[in-house]
Amino acid sequence: MKNPIGTTPYDKQAHPESQVSVKNVAVGRRQVTDDLNKLLEILPQEIRQVLEEHSSHNSLVEVVMDLGRRPEARFPGKAEYLSEKPISREDLNYCIERVGHFSGDNRAGIEQTLHRISAIRNRNGEIIGLTCRVGRAVFGTIGMIRDLVETGKSILMLGRPGVGKTTALREIARVLADELDKRVVIIDTSNEIAGDGDVPHPAIGRARRMQVARPELQHQVMIEAVENHMPEVIVIDEIGTELEALAARTIAERGVQLVGTAHGNRIENLVKNPTLSDLVGGIQAVTLGDEEARRRGSQKTVLERKAPPTFEIAVEMLERQRWVVHESTAETVDSLLRGRQPSLQVRTVSDTGEVKITRELPAAPALGQPTPSWRPMGWRASGQMTPIPAKAETDRHSHNETTSFEQLLDASFPQADFFDVDAKTSGPNGEDLPLHVYPYGVSRHQLEQAIRVLNLPVVLTKDLDSADAVLALRSHVKNHSKLRHVAKAHHLPIHAIKDSNIPQIVHALQRMLNIDDTSLPETADLRLFAQSGSDDELEALEEARLAVEQIVIPKGQPVELLPRSATVRKMQHELVEHYRLRSTSFGDEPNRRLRIYPA
To answer: Do residues 360 and 22 make contact, with C-beta atoms less than 8 angstroms apart?
Structure first.
C-alpha cells in the first residue's frame, strides 16, 4: 500500500486553469531482469559482437534486420547501424533456426525468456525481415497504481506501443498472485506476457498462463478460462476485436476481476471506437423530452453511455513514468459525452521511486476541442490596442493596471481564485457564496464560459433543492407555470433573460451577485465571446472592440467593420450588445459585414 509522505502546495500562477493537489508516495526502486545474453545468442556473430561491446547495450530496445539492408539497433531516443554489410538470407535463417515456432500473428520467442521476435513476410510467405524486441521483467513497475490493483476493481491500461503496457500487466499478475494470494490466469495470446515455451517465465510468479493457438481464438480462451479454472483475476493483453470486448464484459459480469490492455492511446479513443466502446460502457443516441432538453440546455438528441463500463478504472500510460488515472470510468465517459473535461489524476514517479499524485480539475472545452491558447493577435499584436490582462496574470497589488470591474470583484469577494463548492463565504448582501444557480433552457456551455472567464462565485446545479436562484429564458417562464410553482414552493427567485447569449447571461449573473452597476465603465473580455479561440475569431472581435472603444463611444460616429462569416458576425453582435450599443448586418455574401451605431 502507498504511504503518504507530504503535500505540495498548488501554484495557481503556474496552473491558472486547474485546481491541483499533490501527494507524494514512497515506493521501492524498480528491478530489471532482461536475459539479454539469450537474445544476443540468436544473432549472427558480427552483429552479436558489436552489441556486446556497445556502451548502451543494457538499454537496447530492439534489433531490426531486413533483407538487403544494414542491421539496426534501436535504443531509447536513437537508432544506430550495427554493420556496413547488408543482411543476407543466411543471416535471417541463422536467427530463425534458433527461435521458436512463428504463430499465426508472425511472432516467435526464445524459450524461458520474454524476448519477442516478429517476422515480416513477402507475398510468398517467406520471411524477409525480423524485429528482435528485448523483453524485460521490471519488478516494482506498478508502484504507481498498486492501491488501485488492491481494490479488486477491473483495470484497463491504455497507451501507445512501447510505453510498457505488457510489462505492467506482467507485474500486476505477479503481485496479485504472490502478494495478494489471488487465483490469477493470464490469457497469453502471443506468449508476450509469460514468455515462449511450455514453462512460463518466473516473472509472473504463481499466476497461471493459458496459451492461444491463433489470435482470432482469444475470446474463446477467455471464456474457457472462467468456465474451467475458477480464476479470481484474468489478465488479458491487447483486446482488439468486438468478440473480445463482449467476452470481457461476460467475464466481468461473472464477478471476476479483469486487468487488460486495449488498442488506444487515450480514453477518448475508445469512446469514439465503435468496436471497443463497449469496454467503457458503449455509446448510444438518446432523444430527450422537451422538459429535460430545456433543463440541460442541450439539443433533444444527445449521446449517452449505454451500460456500466466493463473496466471500472482506466489508466492512460502517457509515458513510462507518467500515468493518468480515471478512478471512475463511468464518470469520465459521462463527462466527455456532455462536453465537459473530466477531472484528472496524474501519477508520476521519480528516479528515487517516489510517486507523486496530482489531481487536476481543469476547465476545458468539449471532447475533441483543445483549450484555446490566449495570446495577442491582430490589432493587439501590432500594439494598436492595449490588451486587458487575464485574471490569473493580473497583479493584485498594481491598482494602476486593474480595471474597475476587477476592483469591484476583489473588494466584494476577497477569497481565492477558485471557489470551493463546500466552503461558504459571505457576499455583498450577506448571502452564502458560492451562489448555486439552476439553469432552465439556458445554454450551460455559455454559462460555464462566463463563470470561468469572469471568475464569478457561481456553481451550476441540476437539483432545485440545492439551488439559490433560477436562471431561465423569459419565454419558458411565461409558458411553463410548473416552473413558477416549483420555484415559488422552494422560495427561489427567478431571473429571466430574453435570449441565451453571453451579454444577457453576464448581466443576469451580475444582478444575482448584486454587482451590476451600470455607471461603471464596462470592459469586454474577448474570451467570453470567442467560441473556438481561432485567429479569425479573435481578430474580428478585436476589430469590433477597437471600433467601439475608440470611435463609436468617444466620437459618437457609426463604424463599418470588415466582411466576416455569419458565425463570426454573431460573435461581433454579442460583443456590441455587451456595450449596450446597436449593430446590424448589411451587404451580400461574401461581403456581408457589421455596422455599429452610437447610443
So the answer is: no
Burial label, 254 (beta-carbon count in 10 A; 0-12, 13-18, 19+):
exposed
CA torsion sign, 174 to 180 to 181 to 186?
Answer: negative
Give CA torsion, residues 542, 546, 552, 555, to 10 deg.
180
Q: Write down how long the chain is.
A: 599
Report field, pTM of the whole predicted structure over 0.70: no
Per-residue pLDDT for 591 more than 50? yes
550 secondary structure, DSSP code: I
Residue whose C-alpha is closest to residue 426's, from 439, 438, 435: 435
Amino acid at 550: Q
CA distance 431 to 421: 15
**Assigned C-alpha cell, 585:** 448586418
Cα distance between residue 320 and residue 325, in whole Å:
14
| Amino acid found at 545 | R
What DSSP line would sit under 118-180, residue for residue?
EEEE-TTS-EEEEEEEPP-EEETGGGGTHHHHTTT--EEEE--TTSSHHHHHHHHHHIIIIIS
Give, for 193, the enclosing helix (H) or strand (E). Answer: none
DSSP-assigned beta bridge partners for residue 261: 157
Given phi > 0 = left and psi -120 to 50 = alpha, else beta, which region is 112? left
Q: What is the pLDDT of residues 236-255, one digit of tens each?
A: 988 989 999 999 999 998 89
Weakest mean pLDDT among 58-62, 105-109, 266-270, 413-417? 413-417
Per-residue pLDDT, 533: 65
